[in-house]
Amino acid sequence: MISIEFLFTSLVVVLIPGTGVLYTLATALFQGGRASLYAAAGCTLGIVPSLLASVLGLAVIFHTSVLAFQLIKYVGALYLLYLAWSMWRSTGPMTLADDGAVQTGWSVALKGMLINTLNPKLSIFFLAFMPQFVPADVSQPLPQMLVLGGIFMLMTLVVFIGYGLLAHQLRHWLTQSQRASVVMQKCFAASFAALGVKLALTEHG
């Protein structure tokens, strides 16, 4: 049975702005509403490896092995810095004509998926989060954890789509001001860089 506590806690976690939310917002603003749907889907699919690793107990490796954790952490940090550099380099006035044409949907989704897949803290989060909502008397906890994970992913998808569609409404305002669009792009680039540095400085454990 799915508890109200799990639903509420999951909603709060999903609503908190993180790297995935930031990526979805940036995609909606600079590539349009359709692209933001791919971004939301990609970020949601990026949860799958961490969720399966946690459910199957593989996340314990990241929690106990400093080397494994550091490896994934630095790869993830470098990827975020790469995204920041790419966005900073392409900074320029926005136009509505580029809606969905800058990148293919699959490219947008892949980037979103990699953002979450290369975050080792996500698997550790699931390892600590999921078991709290599995009843102690359940003989087969695996199916229950998979159901909980599926609900968490569905929430993520719905919330991220909502963020993306809301951000898409701001495109019309940003295109009216070249300076505002350039500043916004630089802010997103700086935010991705800050998140990359933060991830790189994250301590094991």
If you had to describe this structure to a student in words, what would you say it looks like?
The protein is mostly helical. The chain has one domain (22-90, 99-200). Helix content is 76%, strand content 0%. The protein has eleven helices and no strands. It has helices spanning 4-15, 19-31, 33-45, 47-55, 59-64, 66-89, 105-117, 120-129, 141-168, 171-174, 178-200. Helix 2 runs parallel beside helix 9, helix 4 crosses helix 8 (120-129) and helix 4 packs antiparallel against helix 9 (141-168).
Largest sheet: none
Kindly report the average pLDDT value: 79
Q: So what's the overall shape?
A: globular
Helix content: over 70%
Q: Number of helix segments?
A: 11
Rg over CA atoms, rounded to whole Å, is 18 Å
Low-pLDDT parts are: 94-101
- The total of beta strands comes to 0
Q: Which percent range describes the beta-strand content?
A: under 5%
How many distinct domains?
1
Topology:
Elements: H1 4-15, H2 19-31, H3 33-45, H4 47-55, H5 59-64, H6 66-89, H7 105-117, H8 120-129, H9 141-168, H10 171-174, H11 178-200
Helix pairs in contact: 1-9, 2-3, 2-7, 2-9, 2-11, 3-7, 3-9, 4-8, 4-9, 6-11
Short description:
This protein has helices spanning 4-15, 19-31, 33-45, 47-55, 59-64, 66-89, 105-117, 120-129, 141-168, 171-174, 178-200. By secondary structure, the protein is an all-alpha fold.
Task: Supply database-style keywords.
single chain, 205 residues, mainly alpha
